[in-house]
Write a structure and sequence with these properties.
The protein is mainly alpha-helical. It has a single domain, classed as Ribonuclease H-like superfamily/Ribonuclease H (Nucleotidyltransferase, domain 5, 2-Layer Sandwich), CATH 3.30.420. The protein is built from 5 helices and 2 strands. Strands 1-2 form a two-stranded parallel ribbon. Helix 1 runs parallel beside helix 3. It is globular and about 30 Å long. The chain starts with a helix and ends with a helix.
């Protein structure tokens, strides 16, 4: 199982990969994890080993875009970002499978 922070990084990473493929020049990154946003803009250092790989790959891809902006959106106001992060991580799929199996066993 992965952490919320790993799911956030995975969602951002997948978005950056897609934007890189379509050769986007100006991007806006919205996220509901203040920790992740602040790490990516350099306010916080990424010290956790489990996040470092995500952080490094995001930084590598971010250098490919001429214009990048970041926006922190509080989790309570950003249900869509949470859903996307869960989908990107496989968490939502796992939860749906568990729910389906539980219903079938009744």
């Amino acid at each position: 199982m992965i952490t919320n922070n790993q799911a956030e990084y995975e969602a951002i990473l997948k978005g950056l990969q897609l934007l890189h493929e379509v050769k986007a020049e100006a991007i806006e990154v919205f996220g509901d994890s203040q920790l992740i946003i602040n790490q990516l803009i350099g306010l916080y250092e990424c010290k956790e080993d489990t996040l470092r790989g995500y952080y490094d790959e995001c930084q590598r891809l971010l250098k490919e875009f001429p214009h990048v902006s970041f926006q922190h959106v509080p989790r309570a106001q950003n249900q869509e970002a949470n859903r996307l992060a869960q989908s990107a991580s496989g968490y939502r799929v796992f939860q749906e499978v568990l729910s389906s199996e539980t219903s079938n066993n009744d």
